[in-house]
Amino acid sequence: xxxxxxxxxxxxxxxxxxISGVVKRAIATKNQxxxxxxxxxxxxxxxxxxxxxxxxxxxNPDPRELDSILTTGEQISCALFAITAQTLGEKVKSFLxxxxxxxxxxxxxxxxxxxxxxxxxxxxxxxxxxxxxxxFQGVDRLxxxxxxxxxxxxxxxxxxxxxxxxxxxxxxxxxxxxxxxDPNICARARxxxxxxxxxxxxxxxxxxxxxxxxxxxxxxxYGLKIHVRHAHxxxxxxxxxxxxxxxxxxxxxxxxxxxxxARITLIKxxxxxxxxxxxxxxxxxxxxxxxxxxxxxxxxGEGQFTNFSFTVxxxxxxxxxELLEGVLSDLQAERVIGDDNIAKISIVGTGMRNHAGVAAKxxxxxxxxxxxxxxxxxSEIKISCIIEKKYAELAVRVLHEAFELHKAPGD
Length: 411
Ligand code: ADP
Ligand code: ASP
Ligand code: MG
What we know:
Elements: E1 3-8, H1 16-31, E2 35-40, H2 46-57, H3 63-87, E3 92-95, E4 102-104, E5 113-116, H4 119-126, E6 130-134, E7 137-139, E8 145-147, H5 153-163, E9 168-173, E10 194-196, H6 197-205, H7 213-222, E11 226-230, E12 238-241, E13 254-270, H8 275-285, E14 293-295, E15 305-313, H9 317-326, H10 328-331, E16 335-348, H11 358-368, E17 375-379, E18 382-388, H12 392-402
Parallel strand pairs: 1-2, 1-9, 2-6, 3-6, 9-11, 10-12
Antiparallel strand pairs: 4-5, 7-8, 11-12, 13-15, 13-16, 14-15, 16-18, 17-18
Helix pairs in contact: 1-3, 2-3, 5-7, 6-7, 11-12
């Protein structure tokens, strides 16, 4: 008897009909002799609706109260799932994050899971029940409800699968697996049978929202097998697993983009020790995550002036500018400028480690379309470029074509 954790995303539970479909799928899985834990997202659009309600009151709602509002989305879908299953004669019980033993830190709206006590779920499974757990939420030490950040139901599912020592975690969504790029943007995108944790981690962190990044990180740390597949189709999806040698044959395995970026530049800062640290500590103290960073040596040598640029999530753009404007004289900088009309476009592949010329090919493909590159950053297995936002989708298609990702390796 296997233990399976199934997570259904917002689009898969968007209507009562769709909920009924996924209820039947979970029951069928149980009837095949498995124990089943279901993790649900809020119905599609619900989290955005709740967020906008709060933001109509104030643009800066108190994070603790916001979490109270946001957790209701998953509460509703879980109870609807349970009621639907009960009408079909199935034994099922729904659980909120705190009832399922999901304990987090107290960073409201981006809490991290600190531990899971799965005993209550184990008791329910032993009674031959399906346990339905609200994704995206937990409880802190004080007993206040928290949320895990957007897309956090993936993390709930993976973390629960690990805590329950599940055999597999199935992530059900509105596409039938992980593609070489977002299939809703590029018609030539190809579904992959397998992808390594490392590649999926890069794709997620660079904008492919199909899997939330922390869920991939957790899965990788514990070697949990994750199967991403379509909620309303029986077809096999994509397995996220350890890298196997065949994955290295092609240098580039995926293209992704992110529209949620903004660039900040400090004009005329001193090129001397400690300046970069001072700039970034102002930002990090505000819990703002910095991504790309560029500083060139000043042309006139140490002690002279240079510019310092970095990117932050666009949701933190205004606050970052404001924070730096407040410390301009401290930093002896001339001014802060910024741009949130940008996108990050990235190519990813573990095979990049031992293939030459990948960057040149990427830059050339963009140049042929007249797409200018503003910033570049690389790691062992990815290259990212900041470009003007309006070119993002075109760039995805151009790079997908340039690296012939529509062809399966060996074609
Ligand atoms: P869910 O509501 O099930 O959590 P999401 O909207 O979070 O689903 O993620 C699924 C979406 O991810 C797809 O509809 C697709 O547009 C997008 N996506 C981005 N990159 C990829 C990719 N490489 N492969 C598959 N889907 C991708
Ligand atoms: N409902 C939350 C969101 O929309 C969590 C999730 O769907 O994973 O971000
Ligand atoms: Mg999602």
